[in-house]
User: What shape does this take?
Amino acid sequence: MGLTKGSVGTGTVDNGLEIRKRSESDRVVAIAGNPNVGKSTVFNALTGLNQHTGNWPGKTVTNAQGYHETRRHSYVLVDIPGTYSLMAHSAEEEVARNFICFGEAEAVIVVCDATCLERNLNLVLQTIELTDRVLVCVNLMDEAKRKQIKIDLPLLSRRLGVPVVGTTARKKRSLAALTAALDEVIDGAPQESACQVVYSGAVEEAIGMLLPAVREKTHGKINARWLSLKLLDYDDALMEEVNACLGCDLLSDADVSAALQRARDFLSGLGIHPDDLKEKIVSHTVKKAEEICRGVVQYEKSGYDARDRRLDRILTSRFTGYPIMLLLLACIFWLTITGANYPSQLLSKGLFWIQDRLTEWFQMLGAPEWLHGMLVLGVYRVLAWVVSVMLPPMAIFFPLFTLLEDSGYLPRIAYNLDRPFQRCHACGKQALTMCMGFGCNAAGVVGCRIIDSPRERLIAMLTNSFVPCNGRFPTIITILSLFFLGSTGGMVNSVLSALFLTCVILLGVFMTFAVSKLLSRTILKGVPSSFTLELPSYRMPQIGRVIVRSICDRTLFVLGRAAAVAAPAGLIIWLMANVQVGELSLLSRCAGFLDPFARCIGLDGVLLMAFLLGFPANEIVVPIALMAYLAEGSIVDIANPGVLRQILTDNGWTWVTAVCVILFSLMHWPCSTTLWTIRKESGSWRWTALAAVLPTAAGMLLCFLIAAAANLFC
Assistant: This one.
């Protein structure tokens, strides 16, 4: 899902180049590879870390580093974003390219997928052009064996001119040969005999014109042949990094500038223009990969992927793909709703039992009532509510979603949704970031880095909060259960809750499409870009590891962020409820001020105030409203649904109010964590403000229309 402790905290190299060594003797090694080849699994197995692994492209969006020791050396291993090419077109591809080029890695391990080796060799060949210490790790050998694919690793090594090791990264014992080969690469001589792509005669002659001047200027800091090629195939972003590495403007050198002009004139005279040059570079690399693989890879069974193709015909069909998607979504929500109820009640009882003990402790110490109120009834009680409401659903939702991800189904969802997003002039990769938003909108915003186009990346960030995060589910489910499902209990109630919630989610998805199209036709005009989406093999997820890692790396991390903002919110809520202005509390005064406007959109002043105070954590909206309705000095929890419904109806709630609360829960300003993430990712307060205004305006408009229609016809 993108956002984990490892992706934003310790262990992440945010600028892509910073390295934290434990000692000067540490050797820096980059781990590169295409998306979905098990690169992060190799990294985790070697370092003992828990960098999230997924079965879809774009999962790693920054560098993560860890440490590994062999008998000879101590290594700093850097897991760089998955990329198909070093011709960078997106943020994560730039991070990967920049680290290999300028990150001072002493060697690069390129991880390949044994089931589709030829395509992976494109990256291997590009890496060999850059560095003279490369180790190829052919991973997923177990899957290749299952599909009856044989790979002649010694022959592959001879043709590439670099060491090649076969592994099954899930089995740590298979990595012993990899670490032994890494020691040999580090201690051995530079791989001067490594395979190089030889381009057409004209391109090679142009490189030769540039090479002497470039070699003299770079002083061995950057591979001179590769840099000469990149000067011909010019990239502004790359040249900025090159100049920073060299400490000077390369093209300001008269010899380099003159040689480049001669080479360009030479190519132009032969009718080879920049776009033609790029095509020639790519085509020669692809042909070289085909040549190397010929005889190395043998398929003993012609229909080795027949099962995957049969499943794809069902899961990606226009007629069956969408119904299956909706059914799986409803099943996930049903399991989340059903499974979370009982542990949530137990957790609530336990946390509020601790509250009673804290109260006794404060009384024993003789602490003043205001201090007890602020810390226990304010800060602690809000924290207890957030934890008891958020933890059980997240502990179920995140592992279920991760199982879909690791099995290979998530890319199929993106494939199915690509066409609707294209019609909205947005990028199909937005489907992946939208899926991340179901767990946490901040995770979805960070995941937008996988989108190449800045315009489409902004659209994805601005619309991500139209799908409700895990924190908004409790409010929506509670209102649905109280006003639209009656007193039906057991299985029927939970199934109906899941179906109603799925319908609400579909409305959010529809609004995502609508607002994306609006943005693409107004302030973010542009033509939708295409992208290559790999449909990986279906795999059996490691269920135990998924559960443990989802809870440790995602659930507890997101919960910790929510708790960090809920604690000060609890203090503010308690102060507003207990500070008197005349005969009424400050909370009641503010609610009264907002009431006329709130009535226009089908709410009341108390509810609108509750949404405002719920800005740090959406889970506390209903408890704040109850506190205001009952004139309590602290947040309250009514466990009995019948009593809760009676309190709400006594305060003027109708079915119209319930519908408007559900809609406004679905569409209003993102929480503080999400907005702060948008600010960091976009680098602009203007776009951050727009990200808050868009869902709020849409929610208010829908609520106004429903309230107006109800007043007119009912």
